[in-house]
Amino acid sequence: MAYQLLQRFLTVNRVALSNLTTENDLELDKKPTVPAGTPLTNLVEVGLKDKNVASTILNTLLSELGEQTS
Predict the structure, then answer these.
(1) How much of the chain exceeds pLDDT 70, in percent?
(2) In the 8-state DSSP scheme, what is residue 37?
(3) Which of 26, 49, 46, 48 is nearest to 36 (CA)?
(4) Please, how many CA atoms are within 13 Å of residue 5, restricted to the half-sphere of its CB?
(5) Which of 54, 59, 61, 65 could be stapled to 2 by a disulfide with Cβ–Cβ 3.0 to 4.6 Å?
(6) How far is residue 68's CA from residue 70's CA, in Å, rounded to a whole number?
């Protein structure tokens, strides 16, 4: 389910997500850390490449969107 939501977020909001970046580093098990300042489109793509981290990425995406001020 998280994977499908990420797909939809990216399909519908690609332009908006590309203009927003992560505020914090995201450490993933057995994956490289997603550094602060990463465009949210890249964050979503990490979840789409590996379904095992899709729920973590979705949770992070929603948190990051909640913290955006622009």
Answers:
(1) 99
(2) T
(3) 26
(4) 12
(5) 54
(6) 6
Contact indicator for 70, 36 with CB cutoff of 8 Å = no
Tokens of 20: 């927003």
CA angle, 40 as apex, 16 and 63 as ends, to 5°?
Answer: 100
Q: Give the pLDDT confidence of 19-47 residue by residue, as tens digits.
A: 999 999 999 988 899 999 999 999 999 99
Question: Is the pLDDT assigned to residue 69 strictly greater than 80?
Answer: no
Work out the burial of residue 61: count CB atoms within 10 Å of its CB; fewer than 13 is exposed, 13-18 middle, 19 or more buried.
buried
User: Domain residues of the chain, as ranges?
Assistant: 2-67
21 beta partners: 39
